[in-house]
Design a protein that fits this description.
- There is one protein chain.
- The protein is of the alpha/beta class.
- The protein is built from 10 helices and 10 strands.
- It is globular and about 45 Å long.
C-alpha cells in the first residue's frame, strides 16, 4: 500500500529526514514512534506532499507520489488526520464533514455522514456547532471523521490521542479498532505504547530522522531496552 524508501527532507538548509525507510501493507496498522522532534511529523508531511522530500521514493499503491502536490496525493486515497486536529473553526460539524466528502476510489460502501455519526454519536449531537466551539476530544473525532469522508485507502493519523482525556482516548482507540476491522490501512503516530501494542501489526521507531528499530507488537513488548532507549522520557 505504502512504501517509503531513503527519504531525505529539509526545512531550508536544515535536514530533518536522513534516509527514512518503512512500509505499510494493505489492511495493516503500522506505527511511527519516537521522542518529539525525531522526524515523525516531517515524515507524514513528506508523504502527503506538504513538505516535499529532497530525495528518496514514496510509492502509494504502486505509484510514485513524492513529487505530487498534496491535493493530488489526497485524491489518490491518503486521508490525513493532522497534528493539532486543524478543523475548520468557522464551519459547523456537519459542514466540516461535507466539505471533504468524496469517493475518488469508487468504493462500493463509502463513508457517509451517517456512518461517521454512528461511530462518533457526540458529533451528531453537535452537528450545528462551530468547529472552534468543540472540546479537544470532539475536534479529534471530527478530524478523524473528516478524513474518513474522503474515503481513503490509507488513513494517516499524526498524534492521534495527544492531549486528550483518558475517556476520550479510549473512544478514539475503540474507533480505530473498528476502522481496522473494515480493512482500511492505517499509519499511526502516537506515544501511548500500551494502546499501540494492542492495535498495530508493526512498529517503526524513529530517531534523528531515520528508522532505528522495527518489529511486531510481540517483539516490541519484550524489547524493554529499546523502549527505554528510544521511547522513554
Amino acid at each position: 500500500m505504502l512504501k517509503v524508501t531513503g527519504l531525505e527532507t529539509y526545512y531550508g538548509t536544515s535536514q530533518a529526514l536522513f534516509g527514512m525507510t518503512f512500509d505499510v501493507e494493505a489492511g495493516e496498522v503500522v506505527t511511527l514512534m519516537g521522542r518529539n522532534g525525531m522526524g515523525k511529523t516531517t515524515t507524514v508531511n513528506s508523504i502527503i506532499g506538504i513538505v516535499p522530500p529532497t530525495s528518496g521514493s514514496i510509492e502509494f499503491a504502486g505509484q510514485e507520489v513524492s513529487k505530487l502536490a498534496s491535493f493530488k496525493t489526497a485524491n489518490l486515497g491518503i486521508g490525513l488526520v493532522p497534528e493539532g486536529r486543524q478543523v475548520f473553526p468557522n464551519l459547523s460539524v456537519r459542514e466540516n464533514l461535507v466539505a471533504t466528502a468524496s469517493n475518488h476510489q469508487k468504493l462500493d460502501d463509502p463513508w457517509t455522514i451517517e456512518k461517521v455519526y454512528a461511530m462518533f454519536p457526540e458529533l451528531e449531537l453537535r452537528a450545528t456547532s462551530m468547529g472552534n466551539l468543540l472540546s479537544g476530544g470532539e475536534q479529534q473525532m471530527l478530524a478523524i471523521g473528516r478524513a474518513l469522508m474522503t474515503n481513503p485507502r490509507l488513513l494517516v493519523l499524526d498524534e492521534a490521542t495527544e492531549g486528550l482525556a483518558p475517556l476520550i482516548r479510549e473512544k478514539i482507540w475503540a474507533a480505530l479498532a473498528d476502522i481496522r476491522k473494515s480493512g482500511l490501512s492505517i499509519l499511526l503516530v502516537d506515544k501511548n505504547l500500551k494502546d499501540l501494542l494492542k492495535l498495530a501489526d508493526r512498529h517503526f521507531i524513529v530517531e534523528k530522522g531515520q528508522v532505528v528499530w522495527s518489529g511486531n507488537s510481540a517483539q516490541l513488548s519484550k524489547a524493554e531496552d529499546i523502549q527505554h532507549r528510544y521511547l522513554g522520557v
